[in-house]
Amino acid sequence: DAMVIQNPRYQVTQFGKPVTLSCSQTLNHNVMYWYQQKSSQAPKLLFHYYDKDFNNEADTPDNFQSRRPNTSFCFLDIRSPGLGDAAMYLCATSRPFTGTENEQFFGPGTRLTVL
Amino acid sequence: QKEVEQNSGPLSVPEGAIASLNCTYSDRGSQSFFWYRQYSGKSPELIMSIYSNGDKEDGRFTAQLNKASQYVSLLIRDSQPSDSATYLCAVSGSARQLTFGSGTQLTVLP
Fold it and tell me: What CA–CA distance (Å, rounded) separates A108 from B42?
């Protein structure tokens, strides 16, 4: 089945220790997104790629970076995690935007704990 | 600032009843509207999308859209305990980004 895969599902890191989260997709979607979701809050968009075109949200901290080496993979790098970065990180994909239909499909998420 | 507001929860309904979830949005240019279901500790799952005024039915779910009133709703008929989750309304305009509401927590009581 075509799907969005995130690894690891659970990540524990220490304060200030860099961490990388990965996302892969078999849907062959051109657009990939990274969201941060904290408890009882809506998902917050960090950035997205349209093919290799990177789009950063204005309020995304510099501490968060992303890489997309090819269509299938996308990485989220947190350079110096703080306690406030503990959250669920969600990867999503969508087809190219060709009109009104731009459904986004989410992976299972990575739960990040910062000690 | 684009905003999406959902009716405050939590919402409890008895098994077999109709659950009604409501959402309003501020951006009149919004074109695409989605309902996601999110179980505790899991990721959002797309359950309905609607793009034009009126009703759209899929099994026990009906989405209703009224662009003039900037209002979208989700009805769940014959609610089951397995429907207990947080329901997120999401709205998209000319850009690709989704704006999410804060969610409504639904509990279906056996």
Answer: 6
Give the pLDDT band of residue A95 (cuts 50, 70, 90).
confident
Nearest CA in chain A to B10: A40
Closest residue to B103, CB basis, from A42, A90, A109: A42
**Rounded Cα distance, A109 and B42, in Å:** 7
Tell me which residue of A63, A77, A74 sits closest to A19, measured CA to CA: A77
A83: helix, strand or coil = helix
Q: Which amino acid is at A7?
A: N
Residue B106, Cβ neighbours under 10 Å: how many? 22
* Chain B contact present for A88, CB below 8 A: yes
- Tell me the two tokens of residue B52: 């034009």
Task: Quick: pLDDT tens for B47-98.
Answer: 999 999 999 999 999 999 999 999 999 999 999 999 999 999 999 876 678 8
* β-pair partners for A66: A76
| Adjacent-strand bridge partners of A64 | A78
d(CA B52, CA A106): 24
